[in-house]
Amino acid sequence: MLKDDPELAVARDENSETALHVLARKPSICSSKNQVSGLMKLNHKKDFESTQALQLVRCLWDEMLKQDDSELVKLTQTPSQIIFEAAKFGNSQFLFELICRYPDLIYQFDENGYSIFHIAVLHRHANVFNLIYEIGLTKELFMTCEDKDQQNNMLHLAAKLPHLSRIGIVPGAALQMQRELLWFKEIEKIVLPSFREKKNLKGQTPQELFTQEHGELLKSGEQWMKNTANSCILVATIITTIIFASVFNVPGGNDSSKRLPIHLKETWFQVFVI
After folding, report:
1. Are 63 and 9 in contact (CB under 8 A)?
2. Model confidence pLDDT, tens digit, residues 6-51
3. CA 47, CA 223: separation in Å to the nearest integer?
4. Is-cis flag, bond preceding 79, omega within 30?
């Protein structure tokens, strides 16, 4: 349909959205069998295995790029900014397709002063954040940015509790807390040293914000660990009881005079006991 009528690429629906706006929110249909780390190269490979959705994204984007600059800005930034929608939903391969053909998209910031990498941290999408390494960008350009309202830097964003839908991708409160700590520690390694203790407008360092935001998750994690430990103790007790009983019910019986197993001195019996 698009080849027959290229104008469909810039057409808008009842929500004033283009086809790319809709595809930006659908990472599941835009993903290919290849892993993200193998895809993030500026030169396309002929053997790149993509989905039909990605092929459609390329065609739509190629048609959009034929527009003049002012029209392109309107198409990509209203009613919402396409690249930030894709970053929010973790649609890394969609972003790759757009950035590969129009690298200037990398340097766009939203109304809060966030880049797509800030959005990736806020919503915990490692595949999108890894674009910063795969494309070979200068990290300092993005690591020093702060939002306009609260002056939160990227480490503050890693300290914030994400939406429940993102926390829930890992089962168990303790494992969820572990994942949150990993995110915080990884971002802490790459931000400027001065940003690790820098306070936002509320006077909070990233560490203080993390403690505040994750207080309830920490309590849940502690309770989860206690419940898990209790379950393990119960199972271990049952197993130990069965083994203890089996040790004293061995083949051969006991010596009636000494009340010891007949095969006590035999090596195979000692192995059985152990």
Report:
1. yes
2. 999 999 999 999 999 999 999 988 776 544 444 344 344 443 446 7
3. 50
4. yes
Give the C-alpha distances (Å, rounded to integers) separating 75 from 79, 83, 115, 138, 149. Answer: 8, 12, 19, 28, 27
CATH tag, 1-138: 1.25.40.20
Report residue 76 as tokens.
Answer: 């990509």
- The domain limits of the chain are 1-138, 146-247
- The helix/strand count (H/E) of the chain reads as 17, 2
For residue 218, CA distances in Å to 131, 186, 225, 232, 253 come to 31, 19, 11, 21, 54
Tell me the C-alpha distance between 17 and 104, whole Å.
22
Encode pLDDT of 192-206 as tens digits: 899 999 999 999 999
First-to-last alpha carbon distance for the chain, in angstroms, is 73
Distance of alpha carbon 42 from alpha carbon 102, whole angstroms: 11
